[in-house]
């Protein structure tokens, strides 16, 4: 579904992404891991159109989407969430969801004058869709709560819900577990698995919680210093010497190995 070919993103002399190539297969939940500064979020931002690449290509379903802006990628079904949730804090949870679909009749001044019935019908359909999404995510009891009052984990669920309000094909989740307690993280994980299995969503997930990655993701791609270091099943990745060294450094790696042999 997504093919990244020799992608570079430089900020002056700093090579945040330095020749990364990878594939995200349709119907997969692909994990993207690596130490801080590995280039994971920058890679996400380039794929999702937030940054234009210095060089290289991004292909989606055979179409070159390199450098397309986020709103165009949104219409193609490519969505991205962020480490820090971007909710409309003064609106209710339901209203946050209802705002997502583009091209609503109520956005036209002409329609507000002459097509009020159409607007009302659309809003009723959107409300029903939003309530179905909230029920799916097990947060229906928060429908009328102001989004700004939600916990960090609930805001991450809301962001996931926003992807469900449109025909998402592939969703990039950036550190979905950051600041989330274990119970809500399990709820988020369950929702991701259900969306993948029941609705055919393709996911790519950046996450530092390796238990979470191991439970959800196959394959796992490892980045270090802007490049792809390794790819494979989570169990294989956890035993990979180069991956261990990238995370721990050579000295700590040797210490861990010595302790394991003692």
Automatic annotation (TrEMBL):
Gene Ontology CC terms, in alphabetical order: plasma membrane
MF (Gene Ontology): ATP binding; ATP hydrolysis activity
Entry-linked InterPro entries: AAA+_ATPase, ABC_AA/LPS_Transport, ABC_transporter-like_ATP-bd, ABC_transporter-like_CS, BCA_ABC_TP_C, P-loop_NTPase
Domain of life where this protein originates: Bacteria
CDD domains: ABC_Mj1267_LivG_branched (cd03219)
ABC transporter domain mapped to chain residues: 2-250
Keyword Methyltransferase included in the entry's annotation: no
Pfam families according to UniProt: ABC_tran (PF00005), BCA_ABC_TP_C (PF12399)
Keywords, ordered alphabetically: ATP-binding, Nucleotide-binding, Transport
SMART domains: AAA
PANTHER family, per the entry: CONSERVED COMPONENT OF ABC TRANSPORTER FOR NATURAL AMINO ACIDS (PTHR45772:SF9), CONSERVED COMPONENT OF ABC TRANSPORTER FOR NATURAL AMINO ACIDS-RELATED (PTHR45772)
The name this protein goes by in its record: Branched-chain amino acid transport system ATP-binding protein
Source organism of the structure: Albidovulum inexpectatum
Lineage of producing organism: Bacteria, Pseudomonadati, Pseudomonadota, Alphaproteobacteria, Rhodobacterales
């Amino acid at each position: 579904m997504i093919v990244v070919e020799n992608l570079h993103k430089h900020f002056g002399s700093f090579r945040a992404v330095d020749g990364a190539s990878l594939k995200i297969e349709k119907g997969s939940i692909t994990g993207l891991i690596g130490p801080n500064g590995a280039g994971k979020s920058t890679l996400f931002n380039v794929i999702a159109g937030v940054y234009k690449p210095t060089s290289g290509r991004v292909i989606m379903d055979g179409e070159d989407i390199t450098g397309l802006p986020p709103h165009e990628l949104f219409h193609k079904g490519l969505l991205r969430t962020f480490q820090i949730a971007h909710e409309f804090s003064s609106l209710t949870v339901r209203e946050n969801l209802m705002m997502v679909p583009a091209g609503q009749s109520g956005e036209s001044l002409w329609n507000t004058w002459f097509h009020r019935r159409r607007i009302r019908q659309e809003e009723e359909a959107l409300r029903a869709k939003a309530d179905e999404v909230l029920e799916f995510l097990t947060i229906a009891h928060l429908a009328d709560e102001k989004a700004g009052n939600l916990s960090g984990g609930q805001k991450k669920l809301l962001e996931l819900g926003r992807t469900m309000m449109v025909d998402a094909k592939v969703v990039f989740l950036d550190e979905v577990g950051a600041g989330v307690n274990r119970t809500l993280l399990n709820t988020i994980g369950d929702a991701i698995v259900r969306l993948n299995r029941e609705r055919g969503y393709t996911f790519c997930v950046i996450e530092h919680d390796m238990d979470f990655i191991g439970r959800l993701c196959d394959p796992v791609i490892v980045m270090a210093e802007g490049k792809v270091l390794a790819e494979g099943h989570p169990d294989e990745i956890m035993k990979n010497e180069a991956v261990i060294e990238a995370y721990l450094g050579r000295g700590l790696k040797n210490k861990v190995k010595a302790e394991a042999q003692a």
